Amino acid sequence: MVALVEEFLTARAARKPSPHTLEAYRRDLLSIVRLIAEDPDAPLPLATLPISALTARTLRVAFARFAATRAVASIYRAWSTWNTFFAFLVADGVVAGNPMPAVGKPSAPPALPKPLRGEETPERLLEAVARDDDPRQRYPWPERDMAVIALALCAGLRLSELLALRVGSLAGRPGERRVEVAGKGGRARVVPVEPELDAVVTAYLESRERRFGARSVGRTSVLLVDRHGEPLRRGGLQYLVESCYRRAGITDRVPAGAQLHALRHTFATRLAEDGANAAEIMRLLGHASLTTSQNYIDVTAGQQRAAVRANRTNQSLGRLLASVVPPGP
Questions:
Q1: Which end of the chain has less Cβ packing within 10 Å, N or C?
Q2: How far apart are the C-alpha atoms of 217 and 214, rounded to whole Å?
Q3: 116 Cβ neighbours under 8 A, 6+ residues apart
Q4: Domain with CATH 1.10.443.10 in the chain
Q5: Which of these, 79, 282, 88, lies nearest to 184 by C-alpha position?
Q6: CATH number of 2-102
Q7: pTM for this one?
Q8: Beta carbons within 8 Å of 170's beta carbon, 6+ residues apart
């Protein structure tokens, strides 16, 4: 079984998922494999566990044990991973059929947006990042930090998409600038770049050329680099964004588990607030499903109604009506 898992991961790697996604696949698969191998009624050595040990019954038992200590989202993700894994095994002729339909799964949890909290929080973040007088910074580079935050906040880019950007990813004539994004699942997209964002990226590239020379800004060069001129990596980018939140004093306004993704969600939420429809949000964000894009519109509408409901004038009107309108029969 362990060898088959590795074969599956090798096959999935050809689709260029992020290292984080591949690791999640491995974790979900091996967690269930271990639970089957450790079955109290019929324990088997993990290293030699045969594919024949994976039956609908053993999978149901393993998933029941797996679900006991995990959230709905984790259970659903693991079930989906195993369903994809068995589709791979069927296609390769390793097994005759997929037993996963016989294994219970929870309903897919709604993927609720997690934007930055507070109406003025994005502007507060940008103002803080633009300054270079923060004594907590040992190696300040406000132009680079501003480019990172602005690309996520004004173009809705994911972490992996930011890391994949090249200098030449920004193209087009002035007034028609765009960023060409290598999106999730191989779905490429183009996001318009407004003059303000263009100016931020241009200022960053000029500062980079002053630091590292003209060769550092060739079209094929990685767009985002560290203070040594080396390509930013996942951990470095995450740390950079977290430090920007701390400098702006908004760590309490960042939803748990969101970090850089909160900037992307803020971009999408503001699109919905300003009247963009689900199809437009889907194209700009690179969503695979229109349902995901519709969530931003639905949540925004709910937030707006909640704000109106909380309006003190509405509450006063309710009290007035209660005092002058007799109750119904």
A1: C
A2: 6
A3: 122, 125, 250, 253, 254, 255, 262, 263, 265, 266
A4: 121-306
A5: 282
A6: 1.10.150.130
A7: 0.65
A8: 177, 178, 179, 180, 193, 198, 201, 223
Residue with tokens 């079955």: 39
* DSSP H/E element including 306: helix 290-310
Distance CA 285, CA 212 (A): 33
pLDDT tens for each residue of the chain, 329 residues long: 889 999 999 998 888 777 888 899 999 999 999 999 987 776 778 878 889 889 999 999 999 999 998 888 889 999 999 999 999 999 999 999 999 999 988 776 666 788 899 889 999 999 999 887 777 778 899 999 999 999 999 999 999 999 999 999 999 988 789 999 988 877 889 999 999 999 999 999 999 999 999 999 999 999 999 999 999 999 999 999 999 999 999 999 998 878 899 999 999 888 888 888 888 888 888 887 777 777 777 766 555 555 445 455 555 555 666 666 555 55
CATH 1.10.150.130 location in the chain: 2-102
For CA atoms 256, 258, 263, 266, the dihedral sign is negative
**3-class secondary structure, 37:** helix
Question: Do the beta carbons of residue 131 and residue 248 sit within 8 Å?
Answer: no
Q: Topology of domain 121-306, per CATH?
A: hpI Integrase; Chain A (1.10.443)
